[in-house]
Amino acid sequence: MGDQPKKKKEPVPVEKTADPIISQIGDFRRYQFWFCMLIFLSKFGTGWHTLAHIFLAAPTPLSCATANVTDACSDDCDEIEFDTSVFETTIVTEWNLTCKKSSLSSMSQSIVMAGIMFGSIVFGMIADRCGRRPAFLGCCFMQLGAGLIVCLSPYFWFYCLFRFLTAFATGGTMTTSFVLIMEIIGPKKRELVAILYQIPFNVGHASLAIFAYFIRTWRWFQFAVTIFSVVFVIYIFLVPESPRWLFTTGRVDDSIKILEKIAKRNNAPTETIRAEIEAGYKVLAAKTPTKKGNVIDLFRTPFLRTKTFCMLVIWLVICMVYYGTAQYISKLGGNIFLNNLIAAGLGIPGTLLCVVLTKYLGRKITMMLSNALSAIGLLALVFLTSFDMRIQVACATLGLFGASISFPNVYLWGGEIFPTVVRSNGLGLCSMIGRIGSLLAPLICELSQFKLWLTPLIFGLFAVSAVISSIFLPETRGTPLPETLEDGESFGRKAKE
C-alpha cells in the first residue's frame, strides 16, 4: 500500500460570544495555555525581588570585641564582631545596620514596597497609553538592569535607590503580565487562571531559601535571583501586543493580524476574522460613550461606600499579614532556611485550595475562613513566645498559610464587587492601599525587638478586622457583575437583608 497523504486537520469552530476577540480564538485553547506558561515565568522574579530582603538582611548575631564589654550596642564597645557561621555577608554586616541603625534594614524593605506600589501605577498608565507589550518588556529589562546594579552597591543609600528601581520594575511586571493574560483568555477559564497566576510567585518565594542555602554572600545571592531575568529576551520574539488593546484603540488591522496567527495555532477558522472584527469595531465605535466613573464615585452612595471601605480594609490586611509574617518568620530562631522553605512552600497548596474553596464555598466564606486561620495562628503566637521555637514557627506558618489562601481570592472578589464603570479605579485604589499595608509590614516586624509578642498581636488583630469586614460584603459567585453605579449601589443589598 502506498503512503496515504495526511489529511489536513479541519479547523475546530469557535463558540461565538458577545466578546469579539474570544469569538475568533476560543476561550482557552493551545495558544492561550502556552502563552500563560510563558508569562508565568516573569512571576518568579516578582517573588524573588519582593521578598529577597529576608536573606539579604538575614539576622546576624553580633558581639563586642572590646575587653570587659558584653553589650555590643554599648557606647563603651569600640569594636563589634559578627557571627558569620551562617551568612558570610549581609547588608547588615556590610553597612553595620545594628543597634541604633537596625531600623534602617527594615526601612530598606519598606522602600522596596513603595517601589512596587508606584511601579504598578506608572507602568499601568504606560500600558494603557502605549500598549501592553512595550510596558511589559520595559519593566522586565529594567528589573534585570537595576537588579544587577544592586549587586555593585558601594553605599547603603545606593543600595536602597536601586532596590527601589528594581521594585518599581517588579510592580510593573505584576500589573502588565496580569493584564496580558486576562485580555486573551475567555470567561470560562479566567477565574481559574487568575488564581493560578499566584503559583509562580509562591514558588519564587519558596526557592529563595534554596538560593540562600547555597549562596551565603548577599551580593552573589542578589546576582543569582536577578540573572534569571536574562530569559526575558525571548519575550521580544514571543510576546505580541494584546489584540484586545489594539482593537479598542482603533488599530484594527494590527489586531486582525495577531488574531489570525493565534487562530491558526488554536486550529480555529481564520476566514471570517477580518469581517467579524471590522464589524465588531464599527459597533464599538458607534456606541454612545458610557458615563465614566472615578474614584470619588466609589464613595458617593452609602452601600457602595460601605463595600469600598470594607474591601480596602481586606486588601490592607492581606498584604500586611502576608509580607509581614513572611519576614517575621525569618526573625524567629531555628533553621532560617527550613523555616522559610516550609512557610513559603505552603503558599502553593494554599493557592490551589483557594481554587476549590472559592468554587464551592464562594468568595465570602473563603475570605472569612482564611483570615480567621491567619488570626488564630498569629494570636496563638502572642501567648507562645516563650515556648519551643518549632511551636512558634508552626503558629506563624499557619498565619502565612491563611494569607496565601486570601491573596488570590482578594483579586478575584475585588474585581467582582466593583461596577464596571469604576472597576479599574476600585482595584487601583485597593492595590495602592494594599501596598501601604506591605510597606508598613517591615516596620511592624521591627517592633519585635521591644516585645516579641507585639508583632503577631498587631498582625492577628488586623486579620480579625478582615474577617469582620467580610461580613458586610455580598457574595459574588455565579452572579452577574454590576455594570453601572446604580448597579454598584444595589448589588448585594438583598443578600445582605
Automatic annotation (TrEMBL):
InterPro entries, per the entry: MFS_dom (IPR020846), MFS_sugar_transport-like (IPR005828), MFS_trans_sf (IPR036259)
Localization per Swiss-Prot or TrEMBL: Membrane
Record domain Major facilitator superfamily (MFS) profile: where: 35-477
PROSITE patterns per the UniProt record, alphabetical: MFS
Coiled-coil intervals, chain numbering: none
Primary residence: membrane
Keyword Chaperone: no
Gene3D superfamilies found in the cross-reference section: MFS general substrate transporter like domains
GO cellular component terms listed in the entry, alphabetical order: membrane
Alphabetical keyword list: Membrane, Transmembrane, Transmembrane helix
GO molecular-function terms, A-Z: transmembrane transporter activity
Membrane topology according to the record: Multi-pass membrane protein
Keyword Coiled coil: no
Transmembrane segments annotated in the record for this chain: 33-56, 110-128, 135-158, 164-185, 192-214, 220-238, 309-330, 336-358, 365-385, 391-414, 426-444, 450-473
PANTHER family: SOLUTE CARRIER FAMILY 22 MEMBER (PTHR24064)
Protein name as it appears in the record: Uncharacterized protein, isoform A
Species name: Drosophila virilis
Highest classification ranks of the organism: Eukaryota, Metazoa, Ecdysozoa, Arthropoda, Hexapoda
Gene (name only): Dvir\GJ20939
